[in-house]
């Protein structure tokens, strides 16, 4: 009679050679995320010039911005499932090659249809970027060492904005907005080539899997993996964070220039400073989690509650800043509103990973990312329509920001209430 005993594959030793290789991969993936968010930011940084040259309304610009997310979530979902069969080396290389190709329509003809084509294709190619690069990164680190690499991966988002805002604004000022798209195409193609030569899958893809067979967690239906409180709460925190992120990418540069009277250079500096706030907060994630864990806090309080609280704080600042007239306090609130939510981005992957088997992680990450990034499809377009429908642009922005704040507050509170990794991991384990 066959034995039912589960034999686990021992985790490979994290020796110096493996550690060096893991950190090289981390550097490349941080660069990948920097480029990813530069691609997202370029439209907002070019918005004033594009709207003036092409004579388009706020609603039309909002539609162009939202079109980036038309296939974003669907591609994240599809590639998430494909990641169980296709290596991270192939996936990330193909994605960045497509990023380069996506810039071509705008370079050939600048018009609303080609801008939409650019954003739709780019969104389809970037939809899986955050989840699949995190999945690739997790293959190089054992679970207990993933905090800092996760924070660095997500910090690529803040670095992308911090670096790209002044650099792309300089390119736009010197050579026109089309040149910024061309620069990103060249850098994307270069990263793709480097990754193909250097990148590979790490040894921790299936750590803990039974030798010679699928792990027992592989038998858990996706419905049960996705509908536990931890995963639902993680999706909620991601949803709230991405609402702020997409509003920031699409409308913050236009708001700073049009409503606060900033010059393009001052706008770029302000956006870089906000990105710096995000970066500092992201770099505190790993030591914060480690300190809370060392003091005996459960994952609910060390990784679950902080992500929900970060979204709540950002939502409260979002609600307040349109009504503050003093320049200093208003800029502080703007920095909190558009910077603080970033804490949720690495943590929602960490809490999800705690309750999902390793071999299902890529697929579940894809589903979580696809759901959590849905605000991109709605927030820019809805904000543009609210601005156009209001008596004044100022009133329209206030309404759009207030709606964003309410959504973020609800999402953050839901995350705090529902994320309980230890409890949900036990429930999933005992029902296998």
Word description of this protein:
The protein is globular and about 55 Å long. It has 20 helices and no strands. It has helices at residues 16-54, 58-67, 72-82, 88-102, 104-108, 112-126, 129-138, 147-175, 177-198, 222-226, 229-258, 264-283, 285-294, 299-320, 327-339, 344-354, 358-372, 375-389, 393-418, 421-430. The two termini are 21 Å apart. 77% of the residues lie in helices and 0% in strands. Residues 1-9 and 207-217 have low confidence and may be disordered. The chain has 432 residues and is mainly alpha-helical. It has one domain (17-203, 217-430): Up-down Bundle (Growth Hormone, Chain: A).
Structure, briefly:
The chain has 432 residues and is mostly helical. It contains 20 helices and no strands.
Overall CATH class: Mainly Alpha
CATH architecture descriptor text: Up-down Bundle
Give the structural class.
mainly alpha
Number of helices: 20
Distance between the termini: 21 Å
Radius of gyration: 21 Å
Extract low-pLDDT stretches. Answer: 1-9, 207-217
List the domain count as a whole number: 1
Tell me the β content.
Answer: under 5%
For the largest beta-sheet, the strand count, sense and barrel status come to: none
Order of helices and strands: HHHHHHHHHHHHHHHHHHHH
Q: What is the helix fraction of residues, given as a range?
A: over 70%
**Subunit organisation of the chains:** single chain
| CATH homology superfamily name | MFS general substrate transporter like domains
Query: What do we call the CATH topology?
Result: Growth Hormone, Chain: A
According to DSSP, the number of beta strands is 0
């Amino acid at each position: 009679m066959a034995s039912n005993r589960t034999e686990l594959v021992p985790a490979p030793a994290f020796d110096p050679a493996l550690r060096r290789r893991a950190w090289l991969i981390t550097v490349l993936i941080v660069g990948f995320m920097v480029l990813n968010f530069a691609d997202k930011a370029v439209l907002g940084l070019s918005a004033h010039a594009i709207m003036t040259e092409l004579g388009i309304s706020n609603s039309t610009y909002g539609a162009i911005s939202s079109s980036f997310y038309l296939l974003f979530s669907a591609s994240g979902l599809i590639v998430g499932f494909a990641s169980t069969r296709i290596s991270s080396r192939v996936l990330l290389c193909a994605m960045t090659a497509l990023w380069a190709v996506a810039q071509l329509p705008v370079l050939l003809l600048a018009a609303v249809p080609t801008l939409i084509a650019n954003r739709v294709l780019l969104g389809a190619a970037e939809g899986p970027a955050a989840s699949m690069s995190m999945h690739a990164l997790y293959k190089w680190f054992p679970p207990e060492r993933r905090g800092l690499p996760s924070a660095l991966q997500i910090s690529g988002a803040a670095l992308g904005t911090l670096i790209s805002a002044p650099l792309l604004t300089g390119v736009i000022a010197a050579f026109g907005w089309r040149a910024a798209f061309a620069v990103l195409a060249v850098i994307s193609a270069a990263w793709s080539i480097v990754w193909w030569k250097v990148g590979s899958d790490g040894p921790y893809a299936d750590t803990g899997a039974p030798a010679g067979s699928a792990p027992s967690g592989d038998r858990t239906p996706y419905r049960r993996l996705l509908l536990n409180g931890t995963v639902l709460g993680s999706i909620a925190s991601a949803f709230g964070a991405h609402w702020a992120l997409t509003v920031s990418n699409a409308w913050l540069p236009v708001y700073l220039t049009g409503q606060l009277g900033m010059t393009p250079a001052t706008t770029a500096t302000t956006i870089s400073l906000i990105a710096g706030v995000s970066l500092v907060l992201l770099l505190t994630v790993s030591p914060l989690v480690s300190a809370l864990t060392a003091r005996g806090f459960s994952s609910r309080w060390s990784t679950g509650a902080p992500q929900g609280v970060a979204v709540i704080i950002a939502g409260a600042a979002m609600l307040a800043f349109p009504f503050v007239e003093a320049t200093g306090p208003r800029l502080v609130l703007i920095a909190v509103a558009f910077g603080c939510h970033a804490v949720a981005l690495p943590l929602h992957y960490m809490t999800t990973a705690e309750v999902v088997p390793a071999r299902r992680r890529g697929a579940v990450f894809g589903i979580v990312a696809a759901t959590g990034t849905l605000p991109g499809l709605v927030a820019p377009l809805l904000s543009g329509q609210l601005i156009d429908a209001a008596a004044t642009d100022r009133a329209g922005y206030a309404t759009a920001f207030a709606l964003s704040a309410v959504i973020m507050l609800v999402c953050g509170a839901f995350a705090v209430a529902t994320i309980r990794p230890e409890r949900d991991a036990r429930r999933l384990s005992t029902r296998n």
